[in-house]
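2024-03-11 09:14:02 DEBUG pipeline.ingest accepted 1 chain
2024-03-11 09:14:02 DEBUG pipeline.ingest length=215
2024-03-11 09:14:03 DEBUG pipeline.predict start
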Amino acid sequence: MDFYYVPGSAPCRSVIMVAKALGLELNKKLVNLFEGEQLKPEYVKINPQHTVPTLVDNGFALWESRAILVYLVEKYGKDDTLYPKNPKEQALVNQRLYFDMGTLYQSYVEYYYPQFRFNKPADPEAFKKVEAAFDYLDTFLEAQEFVAGGQLTVADIAILASVSTFDISEFDLSKYHNVSKWYANAKKVTPGWDENWEGLLQMKKILEAKAAAAK
């Protein structure tokens, strides 16, 4: 399977962790977004939206990380622990995945990206959305070890990729007790955590270099 990715991207890192959990080898192909490689005709032919991550499995191309996570588990999973087949349990996992996409990770994009990419000042209104997202997540985790039921699922892995991105960006997680407790455990039990963190360190290094150049 060819996997087009960027190490610092949370969506990309979530796929890497799920693949690790499934024992799958990804043929990783780095996409240099700063050089516009995602806009080259050969890449757009694979993914017309020219986004990362993109997976090509024996000629089948798929993008949007959360769709990729589900695809990998449903095709290659030895059981349904990471993505349950029970309709109610599966619906809860889906809800958490959509929460990550539309609320949690989106709040990161809206608050941090303008600062990192365009050197804009922090927007207090956007920060309120970050806090609201973590309030929701803290509520989801009340008396729960995992975000969507009693075991590790793709929802935990997707949200772990996002929360760790906030962590490396020095967002204070400590006031969210349930999130902090879940995060400490998720780092221990999620396959591929070390590679996830390595990708974050690469991202931080790039951002720090960019910030220094802008001064």
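2024-03-11 09:14:41 DEBUG pipeline.report The mean pLDDT is 96.
2024-03-11 09:14:41 DEBUG pipeline.predict end
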